Amino acid sequence: METLRERKKQRTREALLRTALELFTTQGYEHTTVDDIAAAVDVSQRTFFRYFAGKEEAALALQDMTVAHFLEAVRERPPHEAPMQALRQAVLEGWDTLNEAIEAVAPVELYLRMYQVIESTPVLLAAHLRRSAEIEEAIARILAEREGVDLDTDPRPRLAVAVFGGVMRLTERQWSTGEDFSLDAMRALTVSHLEQVGPALSESWRTR
Question: Which of 10, 56, 107, 194 is most deeply buried (CB count within 10 A of its CB)?
Answer without folding.
Answer: 194
